[in-house]
Amino acid sequence: MSQTAAQRFLQDAAVKSADLVHREIIRRGMDSYDVAHLKGRARIKDWEAARQKCQEIKREAINHLDRYLLQFEEKVIARGGHVFWAANSEEACTYVKNLATRLGVRTVVKSKSMVTEEIQLSPVLEKAGIKVWETDLGEFIVQLREEPPYHIVTPAMHLNRGQIAKLFREKLDPAIDSDDPVYLMAAARRILRQAFFAAEMGISGANFLVADAGVIAISTNEGNGRLCTSVPRIHVVVTGIEKVIPRLEDLAVLWPVLATSGTGQGITTYGTLIGGPRRPGEVDGAEEFHVVLVDNGRSQLLADAEQREVLHCIRCGACLNICPVFRHVGGHTYGTTYPGPIGSVLTPHLNGIKEFKHLSYASSLCGACSSVCPVKIDLAHHLLQNRRNATEAGATSSSERLIFRAWRYAMLRPRMYALGGWSVRKALRIIYGLGLAGSILDPMRVWNRYRSPVPLPSESFRARWRKNLGAD
Amino acid sequence: MVQTKEAQTKEAPTENPSRDRILERIRAGLRTVVPEPPALRSGQVIFEPVNNPLERFQQECVGNLMECTLTADSAASARHLSKVLQSLPEGEAFVQEDPALRRLIELAAPARPIRWSSPSSSEGAPGEASQATVTLAEALIAQTGSILVTSSCGGRGASVIAPCHIVYATVAQLVPDLATALSRVSQERKLDSNSFACVISGSSRTADIEKILVQGAHGPRRLVVILQTAT
Amino acid sequence: MKRKVSLFVPCFVDQLLPEVAVDTVKVLRRIGCAVEFPEDQTCCGQPALNTGYWGDARPCAEHFVRVFKNADFVVCPSGSCVSVIRLFYPELLAHSSLREDAAALASRTFEFSEFLVKVAAVTQVGATFPHSVTYHASCHGLRELKLRDEPLQLLRQVDGLKLIEMVRSEECCGFGGTFAVKFADISAAMGTSKAESVAATGAEFVTATDPSCLMHLQGILGKRQAPTRTIYLASILAQDGLAQKSSAQERP
Questions:
Q1: Which of A77, A299, B129, C47 has its CA 20 to 30 A from that of B106?
Q2: What kind of architecture, by CATH, is found in domain B53-228?
Q3: Are the beta carbons of A303 and A317 closer than 8 angstroms?
Q4: Tens digit of pLDDT for each residue in B18-35?
């Protein structure tokens, strides 16, 4: 009997919530992000104006998505590139696999792309006998561990250097004898360099698709994305259709805002723009350039007047970083490609509300995500809307529906409400008086598992008021 | 096994049946009208204006862990280039084919072998063994301490393959901010004549291990800007 | 002329934490307000709203609007309830005949500290509380009502009170309503982290604008047998140096 996603989530959340080592690693990582992020924001004169501008850019792009996608496509094709529109994961994977096998590709180097995670591209290529190398250091590490990325920006933030050194020793080179990050990076560089120069195909994502210039824009730091898109003779870009922006000049604000929100940097080391295969007269570059535009449920979100703005997401990771739930359960617990608040909001749209509504409920609705989103997506509000959508779709339990029906009945009748409250207190007093707090008879037993019981007052406020507080 | 490039006009619809279906779904979705809140007041200044581009560029270089050295003329630039090259391990340097760089290399007279960029041979791109690359830049951006390169600056690999990337630029190439640089790229249609451009703001780095900054990941560990005041 | 305040008491305060409301009344009266308590009030609808049962929340909200329709000011000792009334009633009651009444009422509904500082323009309420206190910035008050400084302005005027800042004061305590039960492990973990931040200040008391946060935190602190006690903001301000017994929550 297989578990539902919700059951698995609760189980994993319970384990991670109690894992104090994990909590400490995440806390240290997030504390350092907090400091860097604030410093980064201080570099921008008017952060709120920057957020507003980014929101407007993405809104314009999404509200005219067809126009801008066509403009982008036309320019890429004019330069000799190919654009393939994939309705779903399967179509996207099939296209890339067929391309690779047709062109005799034996080795692929990949730079970070959450969309390739979403469509599960690597297993498809590997099954076709193609070796896939993740070249972003964090992705490389989790690939060796055979686990999904922990975070959309820093995939291996749940590991300490000792664990990474041990991993490298076991999977790469038994001579690895230090856990110094500089040493480990050098080891990864040595090994991956061979892959860069041997691979026939480089696969990248795209942070933005610039419509007026017809180029993809990639923001990176390591240089692996640069090498994947410079050395191999075939360059494939896998991207969501919603990554479009109208103009090249929009990057003047989007690049710093993405970097600030993602890592606290003023700008990432490399802001790469690629519009096609190498031109005649150019020294190097891919001979073939393919852009795979992935829909996979995104176009459906357009029709949702309330939640269309969820497509504005620039995948910066800021909402993950600030979310207290993420900080306590970590990225793997979500069990979805996209964790954190954006993942909780988006996944029901991509993968179904029945199976994934629990993520929208796994939040205290603190609103931190909304306050930090650089494109001003009101994520907390969308979580609430997902909850409403779940009940309206009949996706919640009938017992819960009945409970709220009864609750509503009582709340419309003040005397019944007062009596109900009095009865609950009376019952609890009896149960606690018998020493049964925490037992199966205790309606507050879940609460009392982690907390000392709430002291029970002898009377309610309204009773006190009626007795002796009414007079001014 | 290289596929010969076919003349591309338009994708035949039957090769990509989903294209029209996706476009139709997009258009259907956009028929739902979403109310738009008021737009940003015009003239709102998001970034602090850059008043002294040279000073700002040098400051940002320090923060970006880039080396920026001001030189008075090409002789001084050549001396600095020589100094940098001497500090590197043995191995060839790859240099962008350009008259200014030809002159600079001649003045510097480095001991190591030099390979020049060339579109016509496979030897015209930097290789795994290159210890350094030397290129020009399209512009320097003061706001972020960046250099803007395109494929015309020795190709795509020239700014990422070797452990040390040296940029030979002049103060006249400084622009105040990203907005100016990008607008110039648009106006001069640089992305029509180049398949690639990159805004580079430092040496390659990673913080993927415990969020500790490590300089020199897959790209260069050193980015050196020789900034000549006289053209 | 005395300001007339209609007190809205959240359901869990009414039933489990009556001292919160008693002290709220005390302070409002001390600053010269006439306080009434419309007894037909029940709940603002937050539990149903937050769980997604807007069809059940709606009649509850309409009942609230009817009960408080003629109030000059509605004051409530809870940022989360006030944020429901101000930020969500317009959406919830968009198609209700009470839509306009709701909008008008929303503009007259205030959380306790924002009423004191922004409406009554009072920060000095004659309180004495010679103890060290740390402040937890309850989420709904902070992010939805934009209360950043008002509670602190009030605390700074309390005679003898030593205010100690905690790290991550704006991080959620983990209560979140039914979240505390549905996702008990995560809620407890978040509460524990908050309890650790509180403990690191060494303060005798922790206060907030939402008594639900404090109820949750007191439970966590009690389980850890930590010395810090929770106390609602109004309960601090109600201390005028004359009372013999502090009205801080009793430990079981």
A1: B129
A2: 3-Layer(aba) Sandwich (3.40)
A3: no
A4: 999 999 999 999 999 888
CA angle A387, A393, A397 (to 5 degrees): 75
Q: Which amino acid is at C211?
A: P
Domains of chain C are 3-119 (3.40.50), 132-237 (3.40.50)
CA distances from A208 to A1, A110, A235, A247, A272 (A): 43, 18, 16, 10, 10
User: How far, CA to CA in Å, does A355 sit from each of A7, A47, A349, A389, B184?
Assistant: 10, 37, 11, 13, 49
Flag if A283 and B203 touch (Cβ within 8 Å). Answer: no
- Say whether A278 and B214 touch across the interface (CB within 8 A): no
Query: Is A226–B198 a contact, with Cβ atoms under 8 angstroms apart?
Result: yes
Pairwise CB contact (< 8 Å): C252 & A329: no
| Per-residue pLDDT tens over the stretch B146-178 | 999 999 999 999 999 999 999 999 999 999 999
> Is C14's CB within 8 Å of A421's CB?
yes
Give ipTM to 2 decimals: 0.94
CA distance B122 to chain A (A): 8
CA distance C184 to chain A (A): 7
- What is the distance in angstroms between the Cα of B23 and the nearest Cα belonging to chain A? 6
Nearest-Cα distance to chain C for A445, in Å, is 9
CA distance readout (Å), A189 to A148, A182, B206: 21, 10, 11
Average pLDDT of the residues of chain A: 94
Residues of C in contact with A328 (CB under 8 A): 186, 189-190, 193
Distances (CA, A) of A266 to A403, B144, B202, B209, B219: 51, 7, 11, 20, 19
CB-nearest to C53 from A362, A370, A391 is: A391
Dist. CA A23–CA A15, nearest whole Å: 11
Angle A179-A28-A5 from CA coordinates, rounded to 5°: 95
DSSP state of B124: G
- Asked if residues B8 and A84 have their Cβ atoms less than 8 Å apart, the reply is no
Region C98-125: mean pLDDT is 96
Q: Which of A23, A424, A464 sits opposite C22 (nearest CB)?
A: A464
Q: Which domains does chain A carry?
A: 1-43+306-396 (1.10.1060), 67-296 (3.40.50.10420), 408-469 (no CATH)
| pLDDT for position B36 | 77
- In chain A, which residue's Cα lies nearest the Cα of C54? A388
pLDDT for position B14: 53
